[in-house]
Amino acid sequence: MSTAVDPQFTEVAEAVRTALATVTRLAHVNTFHPNAFDWAQAATPAELDHLSKVAFGESGHELAAAAYITKELAQLAEIERHVSTVMAMVMGELHDLRDEINTGHELHHALSCFAAEEIQHANTFYRYSRELSGIEPRVFEGLFTERLNVFRTDDHPYVKLVALCLSAYVGESVITVYEHRADNLDPRREFFFTRLLHTHGLDEARHVQIDHVAMKLLYPALTEEQRGRVRVLLEEIEELNRKLAGNFQAATCEALGLDYTEGNPAAALQLEITKGFGARLFAEDGSLRTADEMLDEELLGLIRGFSGQAAVHATSAPLSPALN
After folding, report:
1. I want to staple 6 with a disulfide (CB 3.0 to 4.6 A). Which of 99, 246, 317, 324 is the partner?
2. Cα torsion for 157, 159, 165, 166, to the nearest 10°?
3. Taking the model in full, what pTM does it have?
4. pLDDT tens digits, residue range 187-217?
């Protein structure tokens, strides 16, 4: 087997390795584990009332709010489980490749942390969905094999890694907006849901920074053909994730006997900002934009009104209280 070093990524290697080492420096301290939570507090009457306020802006919608959050977090759990699996697959494919990014511990360590944290998120969100709703939140058409097959190609592992990070990035940005809203409504983090999103966000902040490394350093270092393949893989996984979302929505509504989207301003806003982030991900010149770089007047107005923040991932001082 040849041990020659691929020079394609030499120019960005030091920046990538330095950034990844910085991102993961405190991963052992600021992290997330399901055993850290008092699960008896997950679905108390006061907690359900709080969820109604988070989703609908008022009390009285406890069942619909629980159904909405059950669907969203169970679906997110399934996507995070897939991300963890593909991340491990990419690490395996990188084993026999030699370039100056994939040397030393930084890349392997960052992806290992990312994959391990994602599987714990899946574990926790499935448990939370069960506690909250009293139903089995999994669907019978999880499309896991189909979603995994998207990445079973002969593309360079960095093509797969960038496409995977992009596929997760919009959802990570949306849930960060919800974390800001929960913190704004419950600044002392007295409710289980606020603590859940906050603790999840400790990991997610690192994942977002790793995404940014993939977007701003790895993606530009790809060839034009490789960048084209990133977009193909991204479109394929996004289409399957949309089907997965439909399956989770149908299963949750059927199991709980209600349409949680009816009159649900949080669900409507989530759809708008998800579409907004997705549509703005690629700039006109083909480069990739972070969520905060995408914030035009329309998106900023939606996010500021809902979360009380004028930013997504960038540091931002709270504005006036969010709608409640």
Report:
1. 99
2. -170
3. 0.94
4. 999 999 999 999 999 999 999 999 999 999 9
